[in-house]
Every structure is written in structure tokens, then in C-alpha cells.
Amino acid sequence: MDIARIPEHALRQIWEHQRFSTTYLRTTDGRPITIFSPGRLNNDSGPDFLDASLRIGSTLYRGDVELHCDAASWLDHHHHRDPHYNRVILHVVLTDEDPSPPARTASRRTIPLLILHPFIDPELDAARVTMLLGETAERPVPLRCRQHTDGVPAETILRLLERLGDERLELKIRRFHERLRQLVDESRSFVRERFPQYVGNPDDIPLPHRTYRRNDFTDRRIWDQLLYEGIMECLGYDKNQQPFLALARYLPLETLRVYGLDDIQTTMALLFGEGGLLPSLRAIRDRESRAYVRALRHRWRELQPQSRKPKVHEGEWLFFRLRPANFPTARLAAFCFLLPSLFNDDAFRTLIRVFKDETLAPRERINQLFALFEFEPDGFWLRHYHFCGAASRNGIALGTARVIDIITNCVIPIVLLYARVFGEHSIRTRAYTIFAGRLPLQWNSITRVLQRQLFKGRVPIHTAQLHQGALQLYRHFCTPGRCQECSIGNELGFPTSFAVSSSPRETGRC
User: Fold this and answer.
1) pLDDT digits (tens, 9 = 90+) for 59-90
2) What stretches of 13-106 adopt beta strand conformation (E)?
3) pTM summary value
4) Under 8 Å CB-to-CB from 403, ≥6 apart: which residues?
5) β-strand 59-70 against 88-95: which pairing, if any?
6) 367-402 pLDDT tens trace
7) How do beta strands 40-41 and 59-70 pair?
8) How far is CA 421 from CA 43, 64, 412, 418, in A?
9) Burial of 239 by CB count in 10 Å (0-12 exposed, 13-18 middle, 19+ buried)?
């Protein structure tokens, strides 16, 4: 096999594992290249490798790397128009037999070019290339213990999942608690004393330390903002959590309340405009979509007379490998229609009352939580998932699985944090009961792998606690290979070097 003709996905393996001479690497304009880190492989849309670290000439760069078989593919794939490629610092190609114009980003920056073929080991023969192709096949990573778990009691697995589910819940509570403290600090407008001057050893200078009292957390607005940010983050799924959370912090709930949450056009103009999700009218062919976007853009300009740039760049949003119903445009539109009912003047108190009402059975309490996420979209969003596509038959309503996910990852941890801060034992008990005994989450690729290879049908994952425990097990024990630190590994004879901490249920931390 001619090395110069190997497919692009084998080229990714060559770059990732540095199977070429790195001693005399140079760009096509003669600058030497030193690779400190090739970056991490990106299986989503955008550049092939993210967060690479390179020295090109005398300058250190940290950014993304894009790989192609030839330099012309940059233009052929329209990367010069895609803002997702604005962070590319090096364009790596196998060959460049035909002269091509230098690659440029959508921001008009020229990208250095590396032709890799002269530096690849000539002994990389056809057999090795075939093995590289096999390494790129996407398949679930087999668990090390999959062939030995038949003898592990189901009760051992169940106890482990419960413990890990509680640990994962505790991590969420602590994360929200840290953000709550930040919101308290941001809400205070007091004059700070000048930090005292110290002489002598810098190691002896005391670190600033702030103590908090219960009264610091009585302002309902900080709890509303915490819930607002948490729901926005959940709407982003795994791929868009960061831009959703950033948007929630750039546009706090109180800012939206100034204009009135019932004014859907205004809140939508602000969120879509500041989120960089309002497309150019030239990119829209559908007449209905063009009129809808024109109205939103006009309203956004009225609200932001001094600023024309969004707070979140459009390149931060991902649509690749998402079902249309999960597009960030669809989820953000749904949130705009949720705002009036979900965040009225008494929003957080309404949520807490659901857990304070001792007459409600767990199922009735869950039904009331679900009712908080019901809304009716307008005619446009009944037929669309985004602005630039054809109309669809389905609307943007949040499905049952998404509402359960929001309750599990946002509502329950925040309610448990509230109960911890104010010593509300009954609220803690009712919220934890829902987490441990109700709310079956939707199966995903991780839980399917664990059920097939580890649980083998003996442990049904039928509660949010067990589902969260399975995620914690796979991501923090199975994937890193920490088998000797897992209860199942102990059962199979692995040496013990780590003890899983006690659950919130056992310590009363929730």
C-alpha cells in the first residue's frame, strides 16, 4: 500500500501516536515545529485534535489541529467558513502535490501547513496500515472483569452502585454549593478594606478566607439564579453544557426579569442574540423562518444599541450527531417558553413547597415536578427545531427522559443543598427518597455496556441512584482501569488500595 494514499482516519492514528520523525519537522514556509502534545482526538464535529500544544518557529501555541490527505480539502470541506475551526493552529496533510492557497479560518487568519509524508517511517508497510485501520474502528471498550463476574453476588454490585450513586449526588451538591457562595459574594455590594501589606517570607502571608452564615443564603434571588443556571446546563446535554451555562451567567435571570419573562420575543431575542444563535438572513431560505429571525434580530438590536457582538460565539455550539429535537436552538427555544411559569416571582418557593407538603405521596410529588416543565410553544416552534431547516412535524416539548434528567441532575441536588443549608430534615428525606426509589433514567451507551458485560441482567438499573452509580463506576473505575479500587475487583481478588467513602444516606450529609 502506498503510504501517500492511506485514508484520513489512519492518518489520525499516525498523528495521535506520533508515528513519524519529529526531529526536523518544518512548516511549508520553513519554520521548525516542536510537538509538546498532539492534542486529544475529537470524535465530534470540528477539528480532528483539540488542545494541542506546539512550538512553531519561536512561538508557543495551544489550539486545535486539522488533518487531511491533501491541502485542498480545507476549502473542499468549507472549513474556511466554519467558526468551529477558528482555533486551528496547524493544518497537517499527507501530501500537497497540487499548489493550494494557504488555509484560512473564518476569522481570516492564515494557518501554518505541515506536509507529513516526508517524515513518515518508510517501513510503515501495508500490514501496519491495515492494523491502524483496525484500531480506528469504533467499538465499546471491553471491561477487564467481564469474564469473571458471574460469581460476584448481585447484592455486592447493588451496594456498590448505591454507594457510587450517592457519591455522584454528593459531588453535584458540593458543586452547587460552591456556586451558591459565589452568587452570595456577587450579590454583596460592600466596600472591601485594603488588603494589609506584609513584609518577610511570602509563604507566611495568610490566604483570604470568607466565612458564611445561614443568613447569607436567605435571598431567594440567588437560589433562583442557581436553579436557572442548573436547568440551562442540563438542557445542553453532554455536548453543549458549557455554552448553555456560560449564556446563563452572561444573561442572569434578574436581567431577563427586567424586560418581563412573559415577553417571549424579548427573552428569545436576548438569549438567541447573546448566544450567537441568530443566523444571518442570507443563510435562510424559508420565508417563515426569515420573517421570524428578522423580528428577533430587530428586537435584539433595540435591546443592545451599544453592542453588536454576542456573548457566546456561534462556534461554541455543536449540532453534529444530535437528534434535531436535541439541537441547542430547540432546547433554548423551549426554555424561553418555560421561563414565565418556571421562574415567576415565587419560583423557588414553589419548588420547595412541593417537598414541604407532607400530604403528597412520592408519585404525586413527582407529578407536580413534571408539571413545572410543561409549556405551549408558538406556531413556529411547533414545526421547527432550528431556523435554517425545513419545517418538522414534531414540536420542541421536553420529553419525559429530559425532564427526569433535569430533576435528577439539577432539582434534587439543589433541593438537598437547600435542606442542608437550612437544616430541613423532612425536605432532605423526601428529596432523597425520590432519588433512591423513583425516577428511572433513560438507558445510554454506558449503562448498556455495563448491563451486557458486568451486570448481565442480574441488577436492574431502575432508579436514578443506580443509574448515577453506573455512570460513576464506568467513568471513575472501569475506564481508568482502577479495578483494584472497586468492590467488584476486591471480590475477584484485586488488592485493595482504596475505600469508597460513605454514602450521604449513611452519614446524613444530604
Assistant:
1) 999 999 999 988 888 988 889 888 889 999 99
2) 33-37, 40-41, 49-56, 59-70, 88-95
3) 0.77
4) 369, 370, 373
5) parallel
6) 999 999 999 999 899 888 989 866 666 778 888 888
7) unpaired
8) 41, 43, 14, 5
9) middle
How far apart, in whole angstroms, are the C-alpha atoms of residue 360 and residue 285? 51
User: Which residue carries 463506576 as its cell?
Assistant: 473
Query: Cell 466554519 appears where?
Result: 82
pLDDT value at residue 344: 83
The whole-angstrom separation of Cα 381 and Cα 272 is 14
On the question of pLDDT at 5 being above 80, the answer is no
Query: What's phi and psi for 354, nearest 5 deg?
Result: -60, -35
Q: Which helix (H) or strand (E) holds 115?
A: strand 113-115
Beta carbons of 51 and 40 less than 8 angstroms apart: yes
The set of long-range contacts for 386-389, using a CB threshold of 8 Å and a minimum separation of 24, is 386/319, 386/324, 386/327, 386/329, 386/330, 387/278, 387/279, 387/284, 387/289, 387/292, 387/293, 387/329, 388/279, 388/283, 388/284, 388/285, 388/286, 388/289, 389/286, 389/324
The Cα–Cα gap between 392 and 277 comes to 19
**∠ at Cα 442 (441, 448), nearest 5°?**
115
Contact 497, 158 (CB under 8 A): no
First to last CA, the chain: 61
Q: What is the torsional sign of CA 473, 478, 484, 488?
A: positive
C-alpha cell at 326: 436535541
How many whole angstroms separate alpha carbon 88 and alpha carbon 67? 10
Rounded CA separation 222/226 (Å): 6
| Pair 299, 305: CB distance under 8 Å | no
Whose cell is 489550539? That residue is: 63
- Cβ–Cβ under 8 Å, residues 325 and 402: no
Residue given cell 454507594 in the structure block: 163
- Tell me the C-alpha to C-alpha distance, in Å, between residue 165 and each of 127, 437, 469: 45, 12, 4
Helix (H, G, I), strand (E, B) or coil at 59: strand
Looking at 18-32, 199-213, 476-490, which range is the least confident one? 199-213
E-assigned strand segments in 392-447: none
Whether 93 has a pLDDT exceeding 80, the answer reads yes
The alpha carbon of residue 200 and the mean position of all alpha carbons in its chain are separated, in whole angstroms, by 45
Residue with cell 520553513: 30
